[in-house]
């Protein structure tokens, strides 16, 4: 139960942070980094700001995933529980991002401070992507939802055309996929609304979200170690 709840909260966080970054940081995608190539082209053609952040997002994201996975090996080799550690790192990064956002002047588009803020968010969301792939892979993705949406449509098609046996097989998975999609979309909507209402105060939400995920994962059910032992058995 705690794994499902943790993934659900991170799905909300994925939608929230990607939308928050896009509306607050000149169209920067913090988790959907390939989208930055599209917005980079638009930025260059229209002469708007944020080009350097969009250019740096992919290499920063890739390097974070690479080093994060190496750190995961280090943690496992020393019997440290990786998920709480990575959630703690994400919390620290989001606190730093909030502090940076609130300290920047309102008119700071394209500044060095905004660039640093954007890269902090990219690192945080890279860690979330790596965390999901490594330790929550039995749950739907918490960031990019193209594959999730495709699978939902395939499962719905199985329910309609695949017969009773096929329908029963996809029922539980379909519920998890739809839940992830709804929570991600909810995060997008909440981020856009809070940015409109409070501008950079919206950066205070991700630390709270990740802290909640940390508490649920730590105190809400079976640990990763016990789950791995069950799978091996």
Structural class: mainly alpha
Instruction: Give me the number of helical elements.
Output: 9
Radius of gyration: 19 Å
Number of domains: 1
Rounded mean pLDDT is: 87
The low-confidence parts are 228-233
Q: Report the strand count.
A: 0
The general outline is globular
Strand content: under 5%
Give the fraction of residues assigned to helices. Answer: over 70%
Task: Report the major sheet.
Answer: none
The ordered H/E elements are HHHHHHHHH
Distance between the termini: 20 Å
Protein name: Putative membrane protein
Organism: Martelella mediterranea DSM 17316
Keywords: Membrane, Transmembrane, Transmembrane helix
InterPro entries: DUF1275
Quick rundown:
InterPro entries: DUF1275 (IPR010699). With 233 residues, the chain is mainly α. The chain has helices spanning 2-24, 35-46, 51-77, 82-103, 112-135, 146-161, 163-198, 205-219, 224-232.
What does this structure look like?
The chain is mostly helical and 233 residues long. The protein has one domain (2-143, 191-222). 79% of the residues lie in helices and 0% in strands. The chain contains nine helices and no strands. Helix 4 runs antiparallel to helix 8. The longest helix has 36 residues, at 163-198. The chain is globular, with a radius of gyration of 19 Å. The two termini are 20 Å apart. 39% of the residues are buried. Mean pLDDT is 87; it is low at 228-233.
């Amino acid at each position: 139960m705690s794994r499902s709840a943790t993934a659900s909260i991170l799905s909300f966080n994925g939608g929230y942070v990607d939308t928050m970054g896009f509306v607050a940081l000149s169209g920067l995608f913090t988790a959907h980094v390939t989208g930055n190539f599209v917005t980079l082209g638009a930025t260059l053609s229209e002469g708007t700001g944020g080009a350097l952040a969009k250019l740096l997002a992919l290499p920063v994201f890739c390097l974070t995933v690479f080093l994060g996975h190496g750190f995961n090996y280090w943690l496992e080799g020393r019997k440290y529980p990786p998920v709480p550690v990575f959630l703690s790192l994400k919390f620290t990064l989001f606190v730093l991002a909030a502090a940076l956002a609130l300290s920047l002047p309102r008119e700071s588009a394209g500044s060095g401070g905004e660039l640093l803020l954007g890269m902090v968010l990219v690192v945080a969301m890279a860690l979330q992507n790596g965390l999901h792939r490594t330790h929550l892979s039995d749950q739907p993705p918490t960031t990019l939802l193209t594959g999730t949406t495709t699978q939902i449509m395939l499962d719905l098609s199985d329910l309609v055309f695949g017969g009773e046996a096929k329908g029963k097989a996809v029922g539980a998975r379909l519920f998890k996929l739809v839940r992830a999609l709804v929570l991600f979309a909810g995060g997008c909507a909440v981020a856009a609304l809070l940015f409109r209402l409070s501008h950079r105060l919206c950066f205070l939400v991700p630390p709270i979200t990740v802290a909640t995920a940390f508490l649920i994962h730590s105190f809400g059910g079976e640990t990763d170690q016990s789950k791995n032992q069950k799978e091996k058995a």
